[in-house]
Amino acid sequence: YKRPNLFLVPIDTAIDVTFLALMYRRTLWPMAVARYLPAAIVAFVLGTALTFRPRLDTAEFSPVQHFSPIQHFIEGVAVLALVLLYFRRELLRYPVLLAPFEHEPMFWVSAGLLLYFSGNLLIFITSNIILHLSVEMSRTLWAVHALLYTFLNCFYMVALCVNPRPGPEDKLSSTRITKS
């Protein structure tokens, strides 16, 4: 009760990176990057574990002491790279005018992640600096973050509601992952 919970942020970030990387591994499977994603996941989780230093000795909230934006920045760059690889693959695989992207759940997930992380990279980089400049500006910055997070969840909701059209490679994609 009334204890800071910001020490859980690195754990949440590691879980996010793990599940998003596994999802994109399945989606991007024929590409070479999909083979290296498990090693990247392990490296990120180990890096997070080695830099994890929770401060439970104080009950006062101090974002400067507790929040390290480096892990969020690395997560953002990695997820944006995966999202851009997904969009590149889809645009090269299908002619732009014939591809029904709105019927693909991964399109909506990727669009939401693109919006969220492209907006939040600047927030993660400058959050501690802006806190020293102005508390009000910092609150506004985190309100923008909350708005981007809301949009991301709306995109997730659309992805869950979309009824994807089965393609001929859908049956093959599930067997490719299990062979590796």
Question: What topology does this entry show?
Answer:
Layout: H1 9-27, H2 33-50, H3 63-66, H4 69-93, H5 105-133, H6 135-161, H7 170-179
Helix pairs in contact: 1-2, 1-4, 4-5, 5-6
Explain this structure.
This protein has helices at 9-27, 33-50, 63-66, 69-93, 105-133, 135-161, 170-179. It is an all-alpha fold and 180 residues long. Helix 1 (9-27) runs antiparallel to helix 2. The longest helix is centred in the middle third of the chain and has 29 residues, at 105-133. The chain is globular and about 50 Å long. It starts with 8 loop residues before the first helix and ends with a helix.
Task: Describe the structure using short key phrases.
mainly alpha; 180 residues; single chain
Q: What is the percentage of strand-forming residues?
A: under 5%
Number-wise, the strands total 0
Contiguous runs where pLDDT drops below 50 for at least 5 residues: 59-65, 171-180
Main beta sheet: none
- The arrangement of helices and strands along the chain is HHHHHHH
Backbone shape:
globular
| Separation, N- and C-terminal Cα atoms | 46 Å
- Average pLDDT value? 83
What is the CA-atom radius of gyration, in angstroms? Answer: 19 Å
The helix content is: over 70%
Return the structural class.
mainly alpha
Counted by DSSP, the helix tally is 7
Report a brief summary of the structure.
This protein is an all-alpha fold and 180 residues long. Helices cover 73% and strands 0% of the residues.
